[in-house]
Structures are given as C-alpha cells and as structure tokens.
Design brief:
This protein is α+β, with helices and mostly antiparallel strands and 371 residues long. Helix content is 39%, strand content 22%. Strand 9 and strand 10 form a beta hairpin.
Length: 371
C-alpha cells in the first residue's frame, strides 16, 4: 500500500497493465478461405457499378461479395474485405473466462492465438497468428476506488488531453484522437446494466470499480508506443514494458498537461506555510495565486468543467476580448492551479476535484518495481 502525494486516501499497490482488446490485420494473400459458404457475406452495390470479386476460395469459387464475416460465440470477430482480414478478440475474457479480470502476462497470448486459430479453422479460415500485424491494442488497468466512480467522473470533467477531444458518457469519459484513446468508465455499471439480451454477471462485481484503458490504434502508433509490429512481438513483450508504456501515455497525454506530476515540497502545517512555499516558487505573485486558488474550482463549476470554460474563453477571444496567447496562458494557469489546489485540500484534509484527479493519476500511472 502507498499514499498519493496529494490525497489522504490509501491506494492499492502498483499493478501491471493487462490487455483488454487486440485487433490483428492480415494482408490479402496471407490467409485463405476454404469455403466461403461457411461464413456470412455482405454485398454492397453502387449505382451503375457491379461487384468486384473479393477472393477465390479453396473450392475454386470466385466470391462476389463486398465483405465476408464471422462472429464466434466468445466475441471473436473475423472480417474480410478488399484490404485483407481483421481479427478482433478480447484476450482477457478468453483466457480468464471472467467478466472483468485482466490478462497481465503477454506470454499467455500464445494460447490465445491458438484458440483464435481454432475458431478460424472451424469456419474454413487459415492464417498464421504470430505473423499477423497489429492494428489495435488496448492495455488497461482497473481499481476499486474509495469513492463512487461518479465522483471521479466529475473530476475528469476538469481534465483535457493533449491534442485530444473529449466525450462524456453517463458512466465514463473518453479522451481521443485518431491514434490513441484514453477511456475511463464504471466497470460495475457496465457489467450490471440491465437490458435486452444482457446476461447478469455470475460473479461478484465490486462497487466503485474504475477501469482505465489506453487504446492504441494503427500499426505506427503501436510500434512507437510498445515496440510491437506483429502479434508474435506482443507475445514476447515484457509485462513491465507494457505497463510503463501504458503509464507513460496517461501521464503524457492527460496528467502532464495538468502538471499533476509536479513535485511539490511544502510544509503541511497550515495555510501560512503553504503561502510561504508559494513565495519561494512564485515570488511576489504568491498571495495573488493563493487568493486565486480559492476561486478556481468555483469558476470551473459554474462553466461545467475545463472544456466548457475553454469554449467560453475562445468565444470571448472571437469577440475581440482577449488575444490567442492570453487564452493559452489562462488555460495553462488553470491547470497549474488545480495542482496547487490539490495540495491545499490535502493540508485541510478535504476531498475535492483536484485530489481525486491526483488519486486517479497515482492509482493508474504507478509502475511496479519488478514484474
């Protein structure tokens, strides 16, 4: 157990990242289809155009279709179109048979690859899993938090990813661009949600179970972030290296812009000591910063979070109220203020947006000393 710098809450020991989802890709000619009648097909025709042959199966039949696809009972999907074949599966669910446990040992992926190949062979598809390229990999962690997940969701409204858009859902937050996605959501609610076709979990699902996924998309992104180009490479990755890549992305894309990782060396005796420390780093601006800290959270609350206040600033800029550099400086200052506010709240023993952001960071970006 350890304690976050800013939070008075105890956080679990650093854990290894698991693998929540993998999507492999194979170019035309690197896989075969013995009998196209064993899988489903889709044909889309454009006005005035015919359908080009997709492939020739093992029976010598020229397949006139836009797409071939098969969904296995365990959720594994095979999709074939003119670009090649995409194979999508959840290695954690396949290996553990558990609704939310994560596979943290990549070496076990050898067994998963064999399982996926058996599913493919069952419908006449054959390929080499280890040589398949990687199109998507989702490292993930999860933790039972001391407060309801909704409280951390409110805190994430104040975060803004670097060069990323943000979407808010009833039970989660998504920060995304074309190459990476950071997804935080309530795993308990996802698994216990009622609805048509949904089966309640047969195991106990902890309350306040927060899942954080770093979704890597595209072969170049995956190669850059975790050094893997093929499924065989992923099988051989060091679990600690995967965890470090996961933590590095969270820190770099979400928490570093908030300066949440800034090392603070202040006395926790009282507010006066806090102001003294501010003076050592900010000089004559210390008192103004201290006064401003008391208004930062209220300001963002009124506007509904960092994204909403940023839209307000840009609208004010469009009316000629402030310059572009001023908008950037103000947003940067607000993120720094959230960090300082976390420290102030810790001094007072308070739980706030700022302390919960730091708690998320401490829980999900920490890395074990050894795998």
């Amino acid at each position: 157990m350890y304690i976050s710098r800013h939070s008075s809450q105890i956080v679990r020991q650093p854990s290894l990242a698991g693998i929540d989802k993998v999507e492999m890709t194979l170019r035309p000619g690197t896989f075969t289809v013995n009998d196209h009648n064993l899988v489903d097909s889709t044909t889309r025709r454009k006005a005035g155009q015919g359908v080009s042959p997709l492939l020739v199966d093992g029976q010598g039949v020229e397949v006139m279709a836009s797409k071939l696809h098969h969904n296995a009972p365990d959720g594994t999907r095979f999709d074939i179109d003119h670009r090649g074949m995409y194979v999508t599966f959840n290695p954690s669910k396949i290996h553990t048979g558990h609704p939310f446990e994560l596979l943290t040992n990549p070496a076990k992926l050898v067994e998963i690859g064999s399982h996926v190949l058996r599913l493919a062979n069952g419908v006449g598809i054959d390929f080499d899993p280890l040589s398949a390229g990687l199109y998507r990999v989702d490292p993930a962690k999860q933790s039972t938090m001391p407060d309801p997940v909704s409280a951390y969701g409110q805190a994430l409204r104040y975060a803004r990813g670097t060069r990323m858009n943000r979407k808010e859902y009833p039970d989660g937050h998504l920060f995304h661009n074309s190459n990476r996605e950071l997804c935080f959501y309530d795993k308990h609610k996802e698994l216990t949600r009622k609805g048509k076709g949904r089966t309640p979990p047969t195991v106990f699902v902890p309350d306040n179970l927060l899942r954080a996924e770093v979704r890597l998309m595209g072969k170049d992104t995956i190669a850059k972030d975790i050094g893997c180009s093929t499924f065989g490479d992923l099988v051989n990755i060091d679990p600690l290296a995967l965890t470090k890549a996961y933590a590095r992305n969270l820190d770099r894309l979400l928490f570093d812009p908030l300066n949440a990782g800034q090392q603070l060396t202040i006395s926790f005796e009282n507010d006066l000591a806090f102001v003294d420390d501010l003076a050592t780093r900010h000089g004559k601006r210390a008192l103004a910063i201290y006064e401003r800290l008391h208004g930062t959270i209220n300001l963002l609350d009124v506007h509904g979070g960092m994204d909403a206040y940023e839209r307000f600033l840009w609208a004010f800029h469009d009316r000629g109220g402030v310059s572009r550099p001023t908008v950037y400086r103000r947003l940067k200052q607000l993120r720094k203020d959230l960090t300082e506010r976390a420290t102030l709240d810790h001094i007072r023993g308070q739980r706030s947006v700022a302390t919960r952001l730091e708690e998320i960071r401490a829980t999900f970006t920490s890395v074990p000393l050894a795998a």
